[in-house]
Design brief:
single chain; alpha+beta; 5-stranded antiparallel β-sheet; Beta-Lactamase; 66% helix
Length: 301
Amino acid sequence: MSSHAQAASLRGLLGTVGVVLAVVQVLHGLQQTTVLVAQLVDAVPFAAAGLAMAYTGYWLSQEPEYEGDMERILLWGAGGALAFLSVAALMLFGQQVTLGTLNRASYVAVDNITIGILSGVLVGLYDAQSRGRLRELQAERDRIERFAQKAADVNNYGRAILQASVVEEVAAYSIEAVETLTGFYETAFVEIVDDEIEIVGSTWTRADDETVAKLARSARRQSPREAEISATELPASLDENVEQVLTALVTDDGDTAAVLISVSHSEDDVDEADAELLELLVSHAGEALDGIYRRQSVGNV
């Protein structure tokens, strides 16, 4: 049985037990006395507890985040029933010793079982919520740690890029940084000079130069220093397993431009925090290239 089906069965069991106990409580109330007020006082609170239990089973069916906790919740309910039943046993034992009778023993036992199960289920829900919050906090902590590590990597790559003296060094560091940051493991750094394409560095294994050139020219329509990720309108010449293409216009002075292109075979999106780090990296690369181009321009004068 799958975990989903098992959780559904456990929710159904809780709801069924609640309805059965509510009906039993009503019958007990009618059996014990013919006085209407006494029947209401004796039956309504415990019947309401049974119905609350049934509603809890229904409510849990609408809350998928508790699916993995259903067994634990019902174990808490069973534990509550045993605890309250133990109290009932002590009460009845005392009654037997002092009065010599076990009058109303079944009523007392069912009352305590009803309240015990409901109390245990509520404690189980609180426990499940606490565990859920703990898991969320742990996931957030792990996310922050990953982000901090990536930010440190971007900072290190940024320093290396800014210290680069030639375009090839900027390309090599940029490619390595993009692949480390995004997990896109096929990346090209393209330079466009007077509309002529030069692939300065590349880790692509399944794309021809014409496809890379087409993507690079298309990227010149983007805003400089910004990264865009597209999962639609991909060139037909790309490998069929490519799910996303990342393009970033690193710099463009009209005559010379540099573009980063990377592809992913996964449908997993780059989250917002990683996208911000990526744009910071592109900004470092653009600043480094602008400096290199200025030095080259001065040297050619």
